[in-house]
Amino acid sequence: MKKPGLVVVISSPSGTGKTTVCRQLIKRYRDYQFSISATTRSPRKTEKDGVDYFFMTTEEFLDLKKAGMFAETARYLEHWYGTPKAPLEKTVNQGKIVLLDIDIQGGRSIKKTMPNAVTVFLIPPSLTELKKRLKGRHTEEPSSLQMRLKKAVTELSSWSYYDYAVVNDELKSAVKQIHLIIEAERHKAWRLADKKYWKKSTRRLLGLG
Ligand code: 5GP
User: What's the rounded Cα separation, in Å, for the pair 191 and 187?
Assistant: First the structure.
């Protein structure tokens, strides 16, 4: 049996560890891919253009937005972020999982425009732990750190708009839980109502011709 492709949104307040979770999922499961977002913020020391993000000027970003190239866009702490549309469709049509590591506004707007997408909210185990993780990244100026923390508290209230909620207490366990969610979604009968997913013999059994 072939499995259907899926758009999977993983959102959480900044510092909860969603990028690490996404990287682990991609490392472990061959048919998982990362959606590379565009952003107008500057690259951090370890980030590479075309790998972590497509870094661009505000003018370039707004031109692409106007041309309808993004599935969603959001402003996050003074910068633009956007999910390029074309790679999503391509990856899903290949029967693969495309992981979107995006903020809460983005997650909610993807669910509106792509109702078949699966949304997962990653929850930090506590505010103290979130603070510790944000500080430990050493990527933020103190003012940005404070802004991110303040934003995190507001963002947490959106968890119930998501399809699934997973606590990122222990990385290995959070990764496994998200994988199990994706597996279950790929076996939903309504997603499999097409003969392309089945062998000829099973197709006949299912009345799919
Ligand atoms: P950072 O600047 O820490 O890389 O990302 C800031 C926030 O923007 C994070 O919550 C991240 O998940 C989110 N983000 C990254 N790419 C996108 C995107 O394409 N769309 C939206 N809506 N949020 C994004």
Answer: 7
